[in-house]
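Minutes, methods subgroup
Present: GH (chair), OT, SY

1. OT presented the first of two proteins processed in the latest run. Sequence and structure tokens recorded below as shown on screen.
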Amino acid sequence: MPVLTMFALAVLAVAFIALDALLFTITMTTGTTGQPPALGLMRSAGGITFSLGLILVVVGGAVLFTGNNLIAMAWASGRVTTQQVMRNWGGVYLGNLVGAIGTAALVRLVGIHSMSDGAVGATMVQIARSKIALDPVLAVARGILCNVLVCLAIWLCMGAWTVTDKILAIVFPVPAFVACGFEHSVAIMYVLPIGAALAAGISAPLSVTDAVGNLALVTICNVLGGTVLVALIYWLV
């Protein structure tokens, strides 16, 4: 191997092991006062259920903005133009946003928030508020790391031969970013509208300005993580 290639792959290897160790640490963590005793296991289980989204996207042939950040590899190789990349990202982002708001409206109409005496709705609002209240520095770091794992899941799927292969390739990276609390812009597109719709009937309304600011910041950082730390690194290698 050329020295640069060897060095870049070595850096990736230890980064992957570190992410593995992080997920392991969270899985093994027990709750503190006021938290469930098996907090780490609950977060990991929640991450596994969250894999459904990316599985449906990949196997069903849908298009996800964060996954499409891998197009930066084709751009770096001169196979697509900057205009084509911006057109793709802009169109897909808008489509993801419309789909997220539409889904939030449907979820609101079917009354899932009223399950367990309204506890589900309260959780939806709590999640939305936690996103808005997130410190900008944390949002930057979590946004970058999130799309590293999402794009790695898509990258692994490119080596898959069957539907089963693709599902197995997704089942570990996605739970890792969910359990670790990383920030995914497309998920936020759904979380904030449903939280805002329900907050009016439960507590104080959510700030639209803060919501837009959070989504914009996480989106930019998702792009950085997916393009620079995955697509362009593998293009360099």
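2. SY then presented the second protein from the same run.
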Amino acid sequence: MSQLFHGAGVALVTLFHDDGAIDPGATAGLAAELADRGMRAVLVAGTTGEAATLSNAERGELIGAVREAVPPGVPVIAGTGAPSARQAVELTGQAVAAGADAVLAWPPPGDQAEYFKAVATAAQGRPVLAYHFPRLFPPGVPVDRLAGLPVAGQKDSSGDPDRLLDELAHYPGATYVGSSAVLALAGPMGAAGALLALANIAPEGCAAAFAGDAAAQRALAGRHLATSRGGVPALKRLLAQERGLPATTRAG
């Protein structure tokens, strides 16, 4: 199965003005810079992008701005997971209209095959990735069901090394990891790539760790642990400290 991309990509933050309004220009500018620094894909309106706080119109504006800002060879993936297939289909259709090259969707409890079939239809031929992150979106996607879903691959943000080994040994589709804790394992073991929150801050380090550089993996430890424990607010505080970017968040 062909891969959407190979290597390290970024799960992009959404930048806001001080009053909480989205800043599509600044967000797209950050995406373009990260692509210039080696990121192979950009995920917009994912968990790191505070998707749950965005209106449909805001999602579309962000997707369009990022797609215009990054090179054509860098796929823009839109987060379109939702509590129902009806909602996910609407978000997917809007993402496609805004210029998304692929979508990432977490499934609610229930019939995952029918859910992803509906999303795939709405994606109009664009690749769909299943999103496994059971801590936020239970129950997640069991490894033994992945091959039966109409998806091109999956993003696994669990950070579970046993799950990762199971995926790489038994799932023939593309596996993209979402945890910066397992990069030096995932890349050398054959994962297709990664979509990472920490890549907003350390794109080169994330890429090196995915390529198997153990020292680069260790060097990410402090910032990985800070963002893993503190979520998007902690990530944005680091971006403010290290890059001078706004720390405004809707995530609490």
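Chair's summary of item 2: The mean pLDDT is 97.
Next meeting: continue with the remaining queue.
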